[in-house]
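The pair is quoted verbatim as follows:
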Amino acid sequence: MSLLVAPGQELIEEQLQDGRRVYRSSIALPAEMPDILARLAKWAEVQPGQVLLSEPGDGVRRSISYGEALRRARAMRKLLADHHGLAKGDCVATLAPAGIDALVLKLACLSGGFVHAALPPFPFRDGFESEATKPFLDAAKPRLIVAPSGHPAIEGMSAVSLGELACDSMGGAAPGTDVDAAPEDWAAIFFTSGSTGTPKGVPITRGMISSNQSAIAAMWPFVAETPPVLVDWLPWHHVFGGLDNIFKVIWNGGAMHVDAAPSPSTFEASVRIMAEVSPTMHIAVPLGLKLLLDRLENDQAAAAAFTRKLRAIFFAGAGIDASLWRRLADFRDSHGDFQILSGYGATEAASTITLSPAPLERPGELGHPLPGHRVALVDIDGRSELRVSGPNIAPCYLIEGRTVPLPMDEHGFYRTGDAGVLRQRTDGMPVFGFDGRLAEDFKLSSGVKVRTGPLRTGLMAQCAPLADDIVISGEDRDRLVALVFASAAGRDRIGEISARIAGWNAANPAGSTAIARFDLATTPADRSRGELSDKGQIVQSRYLRNHAELFEALQAGGGQAPKGA
């Protein structure tokens, strides 16, 4: 069996002239970093009949092979150029969800040098231009919009039907020569998720894709030596699913099996496809992991089918809470021979900044910088901001039709806005850990700063498994108040939640940590109002703005004071 992670990984510390300490991986970035389309062409030649991607169909899954994907992409490229007048550098914006036709369009854009812009579906759901769609269209400036068959944008925005485009190019032939491409050419535009602010367009270059995938394969040799098989539901309008995952599959000659978003109504089909294809890696956000465990923890047959060839479960290390971590670790210990890995990234870094150099010991581990990259921890008002430099960093933002520089410091490091710490594992290896989002911090009226991320993490651990999320408020006020989103297990146990918070206050009595009053949320966060990101996480700043009256009522004596049992 191939190695899971490259052996002997170390975190190398260097000191800049001004005394700043920066860190890099001991693993080198490979010298040869071919274009992603060259990787596709390689696999199309050596394994033309190998399934690249499959999708759900009417009672049977449909699939496309490497050879067919390249042929159809080149035919679609020719159609886009000849019938729609697209030239290298033109933008094609798409509303298409993950699937075969969406893949062919993505690859056609690479073949023709067109810039593929993945639009989020929700603002465009009604199919016409509005204030909600304007920021995305102004940023991307598409020459062509492509939408799924039957989408209202086909009529309301003169979008081209992807089904018709795919059908028209199905039987076509095209020259094998693709457009000349350079690493600095833009390949795609993705939009930031809006977890901490207004979404911004981020251009992704072809060189960013190559460095990202080369670095991942160098740190995690199992991905290259055992072609990845993914059963994947992550949306393609996010850089995680629509760039990193699908290109990880193509880079390493693997297969992606597109799945429906996890829910009680879809998981039976998910279990069947997992049993059929035996995934080698499972990549998910915490919300998906929770639903996966809900389904598999008490079904030994389904769990065995899922883990038969599984090498790793991967999640973004910044987002998992303590109770979910315990469930995941227990599942690992009970099923199969796989490990838990994590990482940390951003749209601005083509998805990935750090990855685990070894299987995780606890939640919150972010790992080591990708090969070829450097990470700095820079003091910001008593906390350390994670900053990164390297070939993965995007050239700019796209905002209101203009290119806007990324927030870079004087040393050329991208300022992530996230706080980090350097932690020591039990094996002695130092790794970066997540310490919250700087944008969520605020000050009480006393001037004392509240570190919202660590506070929320601590409260969530204290209340586990009775709370799914907690929103904390108190900016410019004398005390902290909180709104608790109870889990299914905690909805009828407000007394126990109150006792848990009282216990937290006893151990953390400072004004910047103790919760003076709290209440239970009566409705879930509303995605249509920007309160819930596509990752399933509450956007705290947006929720606080939208529900200011709730928190004012708590400050005025509403809800209840935490009381011990």
Observations:
- The first helix runs from residue 36 to 46.
- The mean pLDDT is 91.
- The chain has three domains: 1-35+207-438, 61-180, 441-555.
